[in-house]
Specification:
Mean pLDDT: 86
Largest sheet: none
Distance between the termini: 30 Å
Radius of gyration: 13 Å
Oligomer: single chain
């Protein structure tokens, strides 16, 4: 990726939501984000923001379940 690439607003918002979530709960509490690829980043960002506001971390597979994706393998959480 070239250094002068400007991050799109949706991608920047998703990254900011991840950063806020990790600041609130720690990077180890981050749910699987694989299902959020390909246009679902705004939904995942909203879920992360809501979790921070509610002061409740998300389950590992919460985003995948909300998007109707198959559950991620739990071995990735360990």
């Amino acid at each position: 990726m070239p250094r002068d690439r400007v991050m799109p607003a949706a991608e920047a918002g998703f990254q900011a939501a991840i950063d806020r979530y990790c600041a609130a709960f720690g990077r180890d509490a981050l749910p699987c984000l694989f299902a959020a690829r390909g246009g679902a980043e705004p939904i995942a960002a909203a879920m992360l923001a809501h979790a921070v506001t509610a002061r409740r971390p998300l389950a590992y597979a919460a985003i995948a379940e909300a998007l109707g994706a198959p559950p991620p393998p739990m071995s990735g959480a360990l």
